[in-house]
Amino acid sequence: MRRNSNKATRINGEVMKELSNIIRSEIKDPRISPMTSVTAVEVTPDLKYCKAYISVLGDENALKETMAGLKSAAPFVRTRLAHTVNLRNTPEIRFIADTSIAYGVNMSHKIEEVMAQMPDRLDEEDETEVADTDNE
Fold it and tell me: Please, which residues bridge with residue 95 across strands?
């Protein structure tokens, strides 16, 4: 099975949907934050292993607690996944913290800070461009 094939895409999407449902409604571990989401899933072509990227809204402590709770619940999640998704092999799930959303928010704040510090300079550049077009 090729990495970008339709079959791989369908399997990844179905596993992602079911993992989200299992984490949201069936796991009762208090360490797992209610603001947990599955951002991406990568199932290997032989269907033996699965990387599930997890994003948690909250601080670093909430992320660590949620990841510990998910790691301890991995056998239960795999069993529930076997019952809901009809695959030849049920993949062994490895949960990975996805910090890309937090990184994006952090970069947006930095860009806003830089833009807030530079409004005067942008106005000067605009005036220079207008003067240059007038000279032509």
Answer: 52
Residue with tokens 């937090």: 102
pLDDT tens per residue, range 69-116: 999 999 999 999 999 998 888 999 999 998 888 788 889 999 998 888
CB atoms within 10 A of CB 29: 14
95 to each of 46, 102, 121, how far by Cα in Å? 18, 17, 46
Give residues with Cβ within 8 angstroms of 127, minimum separation 6. Answer: none
Shared-domain flag, residues 23 and 81: yes
Neighbours of 16 (CB within 10 A): 20
92 shares a domain with 29: yes
Residue 117's domain spans which residues? 100-136
Token digits for 80? Answer: 């529930």
Contact of 45 with 3, CB cutoff 8 Å = yes
pTM for the whole structure: 0.74
